[in-house]
Amino acid sequence: MADKGIEKAEKEAKASAISYARLWGESPVPPALLATLIAAQHARPPQFLPLLFPPALLFSTYLNINEYKIDAAGTNAAWSALYLLLARRRKHPLMQKWGTRGIIRGATMGLCVANLLGGGFVYAIGKRSNDASGKDGAGII
């Protein structure tokens, strides 16, 4: 009896974590928030390579609003992973990690990880309703 209750609770917890990941990956807010944080960090003084990321992330938000949720999730995950790789290369002394810039940098990197996991999950399991993959012979010419 007790085993059935534990199994049911575990199944609900797994479904809950999966549903949270799916909701995060399908939302247009995380890439817009990440674009805002990246632009705030790298605008003064202007650093041109990191400033290439906000337009791509805002394009991901645009795709999401226009009902291309799976493509937007994949774009968001890819650009978040690229920024995470770029941000991991910068090393800061310990005292700078706990200042305002360090906390914002940490929040940005944490948001990148969340976007990578949520967007990657949605992109991996997503199914398009109007898929023109050619299964029925009606692909794009």
Write the layout of secondary structure elements.
Layout: H1 2-26, H2 29-42, H3 53-65, H4 69-89, H5 94-97, H6 100-125
Helix pairs in contact: 1-6, 2-3, 2-6, 3-4, 4-6
Structure description:
There is one protein chain. The chain is mostly helical. It has six helices and no strands. The radius of gyration is 19 Å and the shape is flat. The protein starts with a helix and ends in a 16-residue tail after the last helix.
Radius of gyration: 19 Å
Task: Write down the secondary-structure element order.
Answer: HHHHHH
Residue ranges: pLDDT <50 for 5 or more in a row?
134-141
Overall morphology? flat
Question: How would you briefly describe this protein structure?
Answer:
By secondary structure, the protein is an all-alpha fold.
Features:
mainly alpha, flat, 141 residues
